[in-house]
Amino acid sequence: MSWKDQFKRYKGEWDKFNSKHNILPGSQGQQQQQQPPQYSYPPQQYPPQGQYPQTPPPPGQQQQQSLYNRPPPPGPQGQYGFPPPPQPGYNPQSQSHPLPPQQPINPVYWQARFEPGAPVTQEWDAKQGNNNGWGNNELENYTSNPENAFYTQDGKLIVRAISNNNHPDPAHKYTSARLVSRQRLARDRGVLTAVITSPCASGIWPAFWLLPFEPFTWPGDGEVDIMETWNGDRTNHSCLHWGKYDGADWNKHITQMTQLHDMDRRPVRYDLTWDQPNGQPGQGRLIWHIDGRPVMKAPIPQGSRPMRDFTILFNVAMGGNVCAGQIPRDGAYDMVVHYCAMSAEPEGGWARFENDWRAAPDGKVG
Prior knowledge:
Blueprint: H1 3-21, H2 28-31, E1 108-111, E2 124-126, E3 141-142, E4 149-151, E5 157-163, H3 170-173, E6 174-176, E7 178-184, E8 189-197, E9 204-212, E10 223-228, E11 235-241, E12 253-259, E13 268-275, E14 285-290, E15 293-299, E16 310-318, E17 331-343, H4 349-359, E18 364-365
Parallel strand pairs: 3-6
Antiparallel strand pairs: 1-17, 2-7, 4-5, 5-6, 5-17, 7-16, 8-13, 8-17, 9-10, 9-16, 10-11, 11-12, 12-18, 13-14, 14-15
């Protein structure tokens, strides 16, 4: 048999085998294999997010003519000072905005309504003034003005700090918002969830935290810090404060730090779960979660107010002791709250709470 006849014979046998086993030439067979998803967030889910809307803040902000997805001028219509220099860690135009996780599926008993056009003060008490630096020599004057807190057209809450170092009026050099929820935790056990994109820059200190409803004594009645970062360190500080703030009570202020290198470029989910049987002060447990991972646990301190009395705070502070005296550059710094709600139980139920309690690290004294 000639080599041509042998070749035809072998080729015919190969074609039969190929058709029987559905083998494709080259790399086509590999392409039909299922590929794992590139990005997922099991088990937690997050609310849908579109791109930042191409609209200015709501009516009443005519002085703030910038679009939401770019920094505003240094002050009202840029009257004072020069255009802000590039801000390390704050450049929304160059940042990507990945989809945030979807809403938690556990039973929600309260959810903040971020309704476009509605006044923020409908659900939130907007604190005002500098209050002697708020105990930290902070620079900002808090306002109830819509340029410092507003809802976007796609249903987000923006807490905006504006630095305008050359403004002749000291009360307008640094303005921001400090919002306190009119809703309390109201239950003896539950989960508080917020999905936040945080501004990270020198002299900027955003926070999501809890204080008892007024009047209260600080820190004796307690403070719970769920998200806070400062000076662009891209580190979340989970904290618990109670007792007195002096040398005798040095061990009554605990914290854990979690590196979040992209917390200013994506929505991050923060949860605080509390379990306080019958609301007994000084009893019960707290667990802090970031993106579904337990990052700190602590017993509820003796002498603190019942958890059901606590309210939610969102604010962006500027300068002061915590920021080591750093002064923010001219421009705007937005804390974007994508979602905020209270749920009756954690995802996975209270059995998961027990598992996470065993896994979570204790807060460190500091």
